Amino acid sequence: MRHAVLAALFSAALIGLAACGGGGTNTPAPENSSGGGTTTPAGNQSGSQPAKNQPAPPKDDPNAFRKVAHSKPAGWVDLSKDGREELLRHTKPLDSTCVPVVAVANKKAPGGTEGKEHWDHWSKEAAGGMLFFVSKDAVDPAEAVKKFAPQVAAGEPDIKTSGAIAWTAMQAGEVVVAALNCKLGTYVVVGVVLDTPNAAAHHEALVAWAKSVKPE
């Protein structure tokens, strides 16, 4: 009888151990809270994010030709709009496609409140140069002078070259036309010299000024 009881207890113990998995931990796997399927690791979501917007390519600056540096002749000043108009009264008009950029003169032009007497006095001693943008293409300076000089003044151009520019004196030395080109395009300088006794020095100053023009 005693042996039968012990055998029954031993069998019950074996059945209990089997039901518990042999005594090991039997934790169920967590369910996928997303509704089933395998969860994609955070670092493996290629294509799930929209591509960043690419920056637009830079547009051409329509006013890039105005960004030039230049060295005024010693003692010269910026020339006002009224001063430019006064000097250009001594020339024929350039082609309308030529765009004024900057202008200099050997002395300050009278202001808007000053009258004819001041302008007459200034004109007798004036010399000035006006820089025009004429083409975005690099035109040979001598060819540019040959084209534009007869447009603005009387006479036949006697073209000279000086460094990277070409120039000529027209209208008995009253008008100087010079041309140059750089990476921004081709420019023409129209100079007007009304200071007759010092014309040669003003010619040299205008040519030197044309040489100094370069991109900023």
Write the layout of secondary structure elements.
Layout: H1 2-19, E1 68-69, E2 77-78, H2 81-88, E3 99-105, H3 116-125, E4 127-135, H4 141-152, E5 160-162, E6 165-170, E7 175-182, E8 185-193, H5 199-212, E9 214-215
Antiparallel strand pairs: 1-9, 2-3, 3-4, 4-8, 5-6, 6-7, 7-8
Question: What features would you describe in this structure?
Answer:
With 216 residues, this protein is an alpha+beta fold. Helices cover 29% and strands 22% of the residues. It has helices spanning 2-19, 81-88, 116-125, 141-152, 199-212; strands at 68-69, 77-78, 99-105, 127-135, 160-162, 165-170, 175-182, 185-193, 214-215. Strands 2-3-4-8-7-6-5 form a seven-stranded antiparallel sheet, with helices on both faces. The protein is globular and about 65 Å long. Residues 1-10 and 12-27 have low confidence and may be disordered.
Structural class: alpha+beta
Strand content: 15-25%
Give the CA-based shape.
Answer: globular
Largest sheet: 7 strands, antiparallel
